[in-house]
Amino acid sequence: MEEAKTFLNFIMDPENAAMLSSFARYANGITGSEAFMPEDMKTAPEIVVPAELKGAAYVARTCPPEASKLYTAI
Questions:
Q1: Is the full-model pTM beyond 0.70?
Q2: How far are the Cα atoms of 47, 66, 69 from residue 29, in angstroms, in the given order?
Q3: What is the mean pLDDT of the chain?
Q4: Which helix (H) or strand (E) holds 2?
Q5: At what angle are helices 14-24 and 2-11 packed, to 10 degrees?
Q6: What is the largest CA-CA distance in the chain?
Q7: How far is Cα 13 from Cα 35, in angstroms, rounded to an integer?
Q8: Residue 33's pLDDT is what?
Q9: Burial class for 36, CB neighbours closer than 10 Å (0-12, 13-18, 19+)
Q10: Measured between alpha carbons, how far is 60 from 47 in angstroms, rounded to an integer?
């Protein structure tokens, strides 16, 4: 479990997250990684969400208890 947490902390470091995004060519949700992203990805329309659409998505803040039980069992 501790090694998994160490790995997650490593890939969630903004510079490392940007490096992974650069390699895989996908966006990430890590705050601060924008500064380390390649220039062509900073303005790519498939990466940058237009301001007028930023409020259109919904992200759940909590999991239902049964989902949390499954996640912690892994």
A1: no
A2: 11, 25, 24
A3: 89
A4: helix 2-11
A5: 70
A6: 42
A7: 12
A8: 94
A9: middle
A10: 21
**Res. 54 pLDDT band, cuts 50 70 90:** confident
- The structure tokens listed for 10 are 């490593």
Integer Cα distance of 59 and 54 in angstroms: 12
Token pair of 54 as six digits: 């930023």
- CB neighbours of residue 56 within 10 Å: 8
Q: What are 45's two structure tokens? A: 């329309």
**Secondary structure element (H or E) that encloses residue 69, with its range:** helix 65-73
Q: Residue 70 is encoded by which pair of tokens?
A: 């499954």
Amino acid at 21: S
17 within 8 A of 30, measured Cβ to Cβ:
yes
